[in-house]
Specification:
By secondary structure, the chain is mainly beta. The chain has a domain at 70-174. The protein is 10% helix and 30% strand. It has a six-stranded mixed β-sheet with strand order 1-2-4-5-7-8, with no helix packed on it. Strands 3-6-9-10 form a four-stranded antiparallel β-sheet, with no helix packed on it.
Length: 179
């Protein structure tokens, strides 16, 4: 079951459980000897002064758990990345180098469905790196990279990886190779 669906179901069950009062005893277990009815005389007590309890504000919001990044080493060599910090380790032949919004997680999924055809889909990602030397590419053939539906032909000769960056308009561009 999808972790988000499971989380939503558990949350709904907890709300129903708490709203119905299930599991709560009808009487307090601390009340062992109830007072006899009609015999108790009213006793006046002085008013008690109460003060609000001082509490500390929460240091930070709890972090939602995210799925684990994975890589399958057999065809179609699927890579699934879930990244909040691009400097952390990422498995497989695809890496997220930069996020569009640093406050949100970025995701990328890559497939190598057939030789010299690479497919990548992203969300909240500004820059990626594809390790083409990691993939079994056919020599002297054109190699196509499809990123979020955009097709880019990449030069593989004398390259171990290709870096692509998304422009503000959403167009992916191959970055010059650093020497």
């Amino acid at each position: 079951m999808n972790p988000r669906v499971r989380h939503a179901v558990m949350l709904a069950l907890m709300v129903i459980f708490l709203a119905t009062g299930a599991g709560c005893p009808k009487e307090s277990p601390n009340k062992k000897n109830p007072e006899p009815k009609g015999l108790a005389l009213p006793v006046e007590q002085p008013p008690v002064e109460t003060r609000p309890v001082m509490t500390k504000p929460a240091e930070s919001r709890p972090v939602e758990s995210q799925p684990v990044s994975t890589y399958e080493p057999s065809p179609p060599y699927r890579v699934r990345l879930y990244v909040t910090n691009p400097s952390h380790e990422q498995p497989g032949w695809l890496r997220i180098l930069k996020l569009n919004d640093e406050r949100q997680a970025g995701t990328a999924e890559g497939l190598f469905p057939e030789q010299n055809d690479v497919n990548v889909t992203t969300s909240n990602v500004q820059q990626i790196e594809v390790h083409i030397s990691f993939l079994p590419l056919a020599p002297r053939k054109r190699t196509f990279l499809r990123v979020d539906g955009q097709v880019v032909e990449i030069v593989t000769k004398n390259r171990k990886f290709v870096v692509l960056e998304r422009s503000p308009a959403g167009v992916w561009k191959v970055m010059p190779q650093k020497r």
